Amino acid sequence: MPELPEVEVVRRGLQSHVIGRRIDAVTVLHPRPVRSHPIGADAFSADLAGRTIDDVRRKGKYLWLVLGSDAMIVHLGMSGQLRIGGPDDVLLRNTRVLFDLDGGRQLRFVDQRMFGGLEIVLGGAGDPVPHIALDPFDPRFDQSAVARRMRARHTTVKRAILDQRLISGVGNIYADEALWRARIHFEQPTADLGPRRAVQLIRSAHEVMAEALEQGGTSFDSLYVDIDGESGYFARSLNVYG
Question: How does the record describe its quaternary structure (predicted)?
Fold first, then answer.
C-alpha cells in the first residue's frame, strides 16, 4: 500500500499538471471507486464537471484536490494510481475514472484491486480527513506531544506507530525501518519506552520517510508508480522490510 512518501510523490507530480485546470468532464468506467458518493456515479461526474482545481494537498496517506471550498479525496488503497496523459493515449487495463481537463490533458484513476476510492467532501478544502492525526511532515506536528501520547497507550510500539489516529502516513514499510533505526523491538510495550526513546522513534520515522521521498518512494512491483508511470527506488535502501 502506498504510504506517506509515495502519496507525496504523486501530489508533487500532479501540481504542475492540474492546478488551475478546469474539469471539463468526468467518465466513471467502474462505479466501485466512487462508491462513497451518496447518489451514484452519474451524480459524481456531474458534481465535478466545470469545477477548477485550486490546489493539491495531502495529509498522511490521503490526497485531495481543492475545488473552491470543497475537496475531492483520493485514497490510493492497495494499488491505486493517478496518471496524467492525453485523451488519445491507450487506456491502462485497470483504468477506473477519467477526468478531462481543459488544455487537452487527462487525469486517470487506475486501480487494479479497487480498495482505493474517490470522494467529494463539501466544505472540506481545509481538511477533509479530520479523523486522522497530523503526519510528521506537517509543521504543526509536535514530536514531544505525540511521544507522550504514544507512551500513554496500552499497546506495543509498532501498533502505536501504525495507528493513524496517533501518527498518520506510516505503514508497515516505514514502521519497520524506523524501529530498526531506533533499535526498538516491535513488540516492546509503549509504556516501557522512555521519553527520549519515544521521540527517537518518531524522528526515525520522519527521517526514513524523507529519504524515501528523495528516491521517489518504494516500489516492489508495478502497483506503485508516479504520475508518469515511473517506479521509486527506495526499496534498494531498505534494511529490514521485504
Answer: Monomer.
Domains located in the chain, CATH noted: 4-121 (3.20.190.10), 143-237 (1.10.8.50)
The span from the CA of 68 to the CA of 48, in Å, is: 11
pLDDT band at 129 (very low <50, low <70, confident <90, very high): very high
Q: CA angle, corner 28, sides to 115 and 221, nearest 5?
A: 40
Which residue's entry shows cell 519497520? 176
Q: What are phi and psi of 53, to 5 degrees?
A: -85, 110
- Residue 202 CB coordination number (10 Å): 23
Which residue is associated with the grid cell 491507450? 90
Distance of CA 145 to CAs 27, 34, 136, 152, Å?
44, 36, 12, 11
DSSP string, 71-91: EEEEE-TTTEEEEEE-TTSPP
pTM: 0.96
Neighbour tally for 149: CB within 10 Å: 18
- pLDDT per position as a tens digit, 90-126: 999 999 999 999 999 999 999 999 999 999 999 999 9
User: Alpha-carbon distance 235 to 242, whole Å?
Assistant: 8
Q: Which residue from 81, 65, 63 is spatially nearest to 232, judged by alpha carbons? A: 81
